[in-house]
Design goal:
The chain is mainly α and 56 residues long. The protein has helices at 5-17, 24-36, 39-55. The protein starts with a helix and ends with a helix.
């Protein structure tokens, strides 16, 4: 379980338990953050690998 699973589940569970239920705008933001968790570090690492490899 990654560190993003726990807050995501907690926020979704709280929204479902309180008031009118899940807010789609908040869920959309959480899902986008969840989907970008892995690709962004991969691209950042790949983008920095070539310049550092050339320097060192």
């Amino acid at each position: 379980m990654s560190t993003t699973h726990v807050p995501f589940s907690g926020v979704a569970g709280t929204m479902a338990a309180n008031g009118p239920g899940l807010q789609m705008s908040a869920m959309r933001n959480l899902l986008m953050a969840r989907m970008l968790t892995l690709p962004c570090p991969i691209m950042l690492g790949g983008g920095l690998c070539a310049p550092f490899h050339a320097i060192f």
